[in-house]
Amino acid sequence: MTSEGTTPGRGGGSGPRPLDPRVLRYWWVRGGIRAVLLSAMVMALDLGILFPRPFPSALPPGWTGGTLVGILVLLAGVVPPLRYRFWRFAVREEELWIRKGILIRTVTVIPYRRLQFVDTSQGPLARAFRLAELVVYTAAAGVSGRIPGLDVAEAESLREDLAKMESGGDEPV
């Protein structure tokens, strides 16, 4: 039993597995890019580069933006290892099990008989790290599950395996 009261390896299939370790570097780089872009916008506003300062402040120009830059850089460095630590997934005999979350932990169990289709997705940065995301859709509106940070070959193999499992049961739901 896990701390969430579920048994990921139940009924055959694999036990909970972590994401590919390369996803850590990917999340750090992506977080760093976001931090730099947001910081540049905030500093431009705080220093009055593009427009006059939009808000009065008792602090000298740059202090508010500089503090925010520090916080963003700290978050970009600290959050990825925590995310990686808590992300797990398992391909069970009859369902896909996904656990994620740092502060709020979520466990999602997706029965294969409910699958509509399965995709793999890659952005330009993920391609540079040779990573892909598995995206699972069910009859419910929207995406039902995502597994980021998989090796491309593993994501494609999982996609094909899940597609075969989904099409295996033609009984009405």
Protein model, in words:
With 173 residues, the chain is an alpha+beta fold. The protein has 2 domains: 23-82, no CATH class; 87-168, Roll (PH-domain like), CATH 2.30.29.30. Helix content is 42%, strand content 23%. The chain has helices spanning 22-47, 63-86, 124-128, 152-168; strands spanning 88-91, 95-100, 106-111, 115-121, 131-138, 143-151. The protein has a 3-stranded antiparallel beta sheet. α1 runs antiparallel to α2 (63-86). The longest helix is centred in the N-terminal third of the chain and has 26 residues, at 22-47. The chain is elongated, with a radius of gyration of 21 Å.
Give a nutshell description of this structure.
With 173 residues, this protein is α+β, with helices and mostly antiparallel strands.
